[in-house]
Amino acid sequence: MSIPGMRRAAVGLTALAVAALGAVATTPEQADARPKPVDVTLLALNDFHGNLEPPTGSSGTIAGQPAGGVEYLATHLAELRAAAKKKNTITVAAGDLIGASPLLSAAFHDEPTIEALSMAGLDYASVGNHEFDEGAAELLRIQNGGCHPVDGCADGTPYRGAGFQYLSANAFKTATGRPLMAPYAIHKVQGVKVGFIGMTLEGTPQIVSQQGVAGLTFTDEAETANRYARELRRKGVQTIVVLLHEGGAQAATGGINDCVGMTGPIVDIANRMDPSIDVVVSGHTHQAYNCNINGKLVTSASSFGRLVTDIDLKIDRRTGDVISAAANNVVVTRDVAKDPKQTELINRYKTVLGPVADRQVGVTSQALTKTQETLFGTTLGESPLGNVIADAQLAATDDEQDAVAAFMNPGGVRADLDAGPVTYEEAFTVQPFANNLVTLDLTGAQLYCVLEQQFVTGRTLYPSSTVGYVVDPAGTTGTAADPCAGTRVVRGSLTIGGTVVDTAATYRVTVNNFLSGGGDGFSALTAGTNQVTGLIDLDAFVAYLTAQSPVSAPTLDRIRTTAEVPAA
User: Fold this and answer.
1) Would you say residue 5 has pLDDT above 90?
2) Contact 182, 486 (CB under 8 A)
3) For the purposes of burial, counting CB atoms within 10 Å of the CB of 34, is it exposed (0-12), middle (13-18) or buried (19 or more)?
4) Cα–Cα dist 547/363, whole Å
5) Beta partners for 375?
6) Is there a contact between 364 and 379 (Cβ–Cβ < 8 Å)?
7) pLDDT at site 13
């Protein structure tokens, strides 16, 4: 049961004992005779995304310190286990361990990451949306082992599968209604049972390619957790932990162990969860927080292996209930010794990868960041690197497919580029999804609808340099059912190549296949016609870097507001 419920139950039991027996333990000897609680430590991480080597740029720091890298992560985990009772420690994760990974992991279908985390002692992990990037069959292979059906055993050795258990309670096979993978696990510690329920966000189909979730149905997170919590209780499990790949964010003033002004889906989900659920290890939003929501401990360890959440539970030996729960987000600093086994793993895969990763593909004259500018008080503006990628996609399709504009989704821009030479590996880290470019026909009216949908989804599409338009902060936002009803984009302000867009005319526009399939909620793009599939997005990006070097950061003036451009 939840912590507040446990306290209430204990008070009631004491009153009954006094009434029935007339006495309670009053001496230290009598008190010491009671069974001592079982101490259980959970070590949690989330959103690792294959970052075997220390991430660079802003992705490689947290709380003002350089952090991350699996060689250091493994050492920190070992030290945290040593500080606790090793046999009472369970290591868990809340999804997106793989997918959107740097080249060192992605080139081998993330087998190196699974091997590294297994070696680091991971026990249980929920699936995240990126676990579905290559489809359900590939996820099952990642769990169970076997060589890739197309690429084989890329490093020349058999892939043995994960040394930990993936849990997937709310991803069901549509044809049978059965869970794709085990929905939960029961772990015994000194006679008490700890239950782990693993899930990803219900909205996974909206943020993963349709091929990745084909044949699957995803259900509500809270309802699914409550269903399996009831099943666990029937099996005598009273300590219940949910590993959930969905999260939230706190205010910018909050530190890694704070919970200031918490918002996001996790708040509603935790509030709807059954009181028997004690801890929610969350993820997806790449944020750090340490909260109590509705009597539940709710945590997140940011991303890329930069933090480990150290969760301490005291469990009543007789009832199996949680007496207390506390957490601390620990920075994975790089001032500890590297784990030699992890170093050997990294070197082995780097050798196999060969000179491809180090090949220089271009030069940047200044750092190109993925950070979005603030647009009327929110980070819904442009990004220097996002704009460059949109320009690259247009350059790859203007002559070839007669494209006049291109748009890039912000979630597909995964890392910054530092100033100076750019290697193939660095370019890959920026765009690791291997999406194809798709050029399609949209009318001017449909283009306005796509842009209005940005304010429904809360995601800004980065436009190519040929595109310009004005946003009215006082305009109305459309609805999910009718995004076109919005008036945030000033009518008559949208231009392509300096010419005002005619709502009745047709324009050739390039996006990636994720967006053309309605990804990130951009259903308006599925109305595009005469679709032609082109290059892989990374190939277009690399070609642009090579042809345009040195590449500088573009001026962020493609999206402007009515404050910058007064009404005529």
Assistant:
1) no
2) no
3) exposed
4) 10
5) 378
6) no
7) 30
Both structure tokens of 507: 């324009």
**For the segment 416-464, what is each residue's pLDDT rounded down to a tens digit?**
999 999 999 999 999 999 898 999 999 999 999 999 999 999 999 999 9
**What tokens appear for 350 in the block?**
């780097």
Q: Contact, 115 vs 85, CB < 8 A?
A: no
111-119 vs 340-353: helix crossing angle, rounded to 10: 170
DSSP string, 220-259: -HHHHHHHHHHHHHHTT--EEEEEEE---B--TT--TT--
CB 385 within 8 A of CB 368: yes
Distance (Å, whole) CA 542 – CA 392: 8
Q: What pTM, to 2 d.p., does this model score? A: 0.84
Q: What tokens appear for 126 in the block?
A: 């929920």
Tokens of 381: 């503006």
Token pair listed for 327:
């957490």
CB of 312 closer than 8 Å to CB of 36: no
User: In the numeric block, which tokens belong to residue 159?
Assistant: 């892939």
Residue type at position 426: E
Q: How far is CA 284 from CA 201, 202, 370, in A?
A: 8, 12, 18
Please tell me which residue, 502 or 373, carries the higher pLDDT value: 502
Structure tokens given for 290: 């340490």
Number of CB atoms found within 10 A of residue 494's CB: 21
3-state secondary structure of 363: strand
Q: Which two tokens stand for residue 96?
A: 């997106």
In three-state form (DSSP H/G/I as H, E/B as E, the rest C), the secondary structure along 139-198 is HHHHHHCCCECCCECCCCCCCCCCCCEEECCCEEECCCCCECCCCEEEEEECCEEEEEEE
pLDDT at residue 567 greater than cutoff 80: no
Cα(554)–Cα(465) distance, integer angstroms? 9
Residue 343 contacts by C-beta under 8 Å, 6 or more apart in sequence? 71
Query: Which 3 state secondary structure label does DSSP give 532?
Result: strand
Alpha carbon distance 213, 236 (integer Å): 34
- Across the beta sheet with 288-293, the strand order is 184-189, 192-200, 239-245, 277-282, 296-301, 288-293
Helices 111-119 and 70-83 sit at what angle, rounded to 10 degrees?
20
One-letter identity of residue 380: L
Single-letter code of the amino acid located at 281? V
